Amino acid sequence: KQEVTQIPAALSVPEGENLVLNCSFTDSAIYNLQWFRQDPGKGLTSLLLIQSSQREQTSGRLNASLDKSSGRSTLYIAASQPGDSATYLCAGDPRAGGTSYGKLTFGQGTILTVHP
Amino acid sequence: DGGITQSPKYLFRKEGQNVTLSCEQNLNHDAMYWYRQDPGQGLRLIYYSQIVNDFQKGDIAEGYSVSREKKESFPLTVTSAQKNPTAFYLCASSPRGANNEKLFFGSGTQLSVL
Fold it and tell me: Chain B residue closest to A43 (CA)?
């Protein structure tokens, strides 16, 4: 059974710092890996999706990488801002291929605080 | 605006009572899902539905029931058999197809026991 772990559980950084959030998964037979953002008391917003054939995806100041062989994904946030403060979750899709069923396995999340 | 609407935002359940959480989407997505989130934990899948009139149990389906009579709607009932229902419930949807796999989430319902 796929297990997803995120380190660190919480991170506090000053504004402007570049930072890395880590996600590890136990089963390398992963179809894709998604990173989500969750604000307090809100739903999740998909940030980046990396398919198994890809190694990384970029969107603005965000860059996510996927290394299936080592069972790791990282989310890099450049020039962090107070508005980036939120919980960041990664989730792995264990499908071998085909249509999406959304049966993702989620990590516990990293709580990020960016202070001015 | 297209999106997923969950209601109510807050819900209280008395012991022995069944309660129903609403989830409606106007994204024309085929697949819909219910997740449960407990503090400090990741999301766990309760039920999912790939098409109308069909749904499958997720990892923690006991004490819950769903229906999918319309493409737009996927209500979740928390039954009295669910002994620890206090949690944040999230509904999500996605289009079917290998190239469209992002999940879109509603804003959630916080369920508490009186």
Answer: B107
Q: Name the percent of chain B in helix, strand, coil, to the closest 5.
A: 0, 50, 50
pLDDT tens readout for residues A6-44:
999 999 999 999 999 999 998 777 778 899 999 998 999
Q: What is the DSSP letter of A36?
A: E
Output the CA–CA distances (angstroms, integers) from residue B84 to B40, B111, B113, in the order listed. 16, 10, 8
Residues B15, B113, B41, A64, CA torsion sign: positive
Mention every residue, 6+ apart, whose C-beta is less than 8 A from residue A58: A48, A64
Chain B, window 63-82: residues with a beta carbon less than 8 angstroms from a chain A beta carbon: none
> Among residues A88, A75, A76, A85, which one has the least CA distance to residue A116?
A85
Q: Does A113 touch chain B (CB under 8 A)?
A: no
Residue of A nearest to B98 (CA): A99
pLDDT, tens digit, 9 for 90 and up, residues B64-112:
999 999 999 999 999 999 989 999 999 999 887 444 478 899 999 999 9
Contact assignment for A103 to B41 by CB distance below 8 Å: no
Q: What is the identity of the amino acid at B64?
A: Y
